[in-house]
Amino acid sequence: MSEPDPGPQTGSGENSEETSLIETEVTADTTETRQASRADPVVESRDLSVYYGDDQALNDVNLAIHEQEVTAIIGPSGCGKSTFLRCLNRMNDLVESARVEGDLLLRDTNLYGDDVDPVALRRQIGMVFQHPNPFPKTIYDNVAYGLRVQNKAVTDDVIEQALRRAAIWDEVKDQLHTSALDLSGGQQQRLCIARAIAVDPEVILMDEPASALDPIATSKIEDLIEELAEDYTVVIVTHNMQQAARISDRTAVFLTGGELAEYDDTQTIFENPESERVEDYITGKFG
């Protein structure tokens, strides 16, 4: 909110140049294949605004998130990326000064309706945070935690399946009853992903899940995200534009003032954005 506005939004869609504005590979084939059969949104915000006291963090955001796709949210610091993400499973309810206006729908259900239980909602919309946060328990008990809270059956097969889907089973199968805190940072993050998917959510939110990891661990997380999108809807906040271009189907660009400046398929955002402000941000002129 205190950042300088980079200037008025003007169209630059006439730019017919097909080269990406940043050096990366945009996975167009994967995007087109996924989007062809998934037109209906799973989550949709309508005129969504969020305030922390008198400060507005999001400004009339309209955005539709589609089933079994990876949606990346990018933008400069303080633009409302994480605020939007935390609205999706009502984590902002935990902030006393937060106030939400507008509508946020999971299919046809208003997530901020009086009949929605935020705890139950978080079982449908799981979250993985920026820094790995395994519990001080065994690897097995970390994965089993959500199942036990929900009074669901905990079996060795269920634990193994979650760890396999998080691409960490082969690394930990012989140490399931040792402390999760003994794992490396990248392994801890994949364990947290296993914990999130063990309860079989519909949507997985990721708030910069690889920002604290080394390049090898980051690559494993990115590969995993693409695999998860075969079964789940994934929404990821990232400061890494190359990462967004590599793994996402659609990209939303938030700019100063909590404004959604542009939202489109990832190839369009990185090769030929409509907004001059978005192009300036992607090419590093500000942010």
Please characterize this protein's 3D structure.
With 287 residues, the chain is an alpha/beta fold. It has a domain at 28-133 and 201-282: P-loop containing nucleotide triphosphate hydrolases (Rossmann fold), CATH 3.40.50.300. Helix content is 34%, strand content 23%. It is built from 11 helices and 10 strands. It has helices spanning 28-36, 81-88, 118-124, 139-149, 156-165, 169-172, 185-198, 215-228, 241-247, 266-271, 276-282; strands spanning 41-52, 55-66, 70-74, 98-106, 109-110, 125-128, 203-207, 233-237, 250-255, 259-265. A 6-stranded mixed β-sheet has the order 6-7-8-3-9-10, with helices on both faces. The longest helix is centred in the last third of the chain and has 14 residues, at 185-198. The chain is globular and about 55 Å long.
Give the oligomeric state of the chains in this entry, treating copies of one chain as homo and distinct chains as hetero.
Answer: single chain
Please write the string of helix (H) and strand (E) elements.
HEEEHEEHEHHHHEHEHEEHH
Radius of gyration, in Å, reads: 19 Å
What is the global morphology?
globular
Tell me the β content. 15-25%
CATH topology of the domain at 28-133 and 201-282: Rossmann fold
In which range does the helix fraction lie? 25-40%
Largest sheet: 6 strands, mixed
Average predicted local confidence, pLDDT: 88
Assigned CATH class of the domain at 28-133 and 201-282: Alpha Beta
Residue runs with pLDDT of under 50 for 5 or more positions: 1-18
Per CATH, which architecture of the domain at 28-133 and 201-282?
3-Layer(aba) Sandwich
What's the arrangement of strands in the largest beta sheet?
Answer: 6-7-8-3-9-10
Distance between the termini: 13 Å
Number-wise, the strands total: 10
H/I helix tally: 11
Helices and strands: which structural class? alpha/beta
Question: Could you give me the name of the CATH homologous superfamily of the domain at 28-133 and 201-282?
Answer: P-loop containing nucleotide triphosphate hydrolases
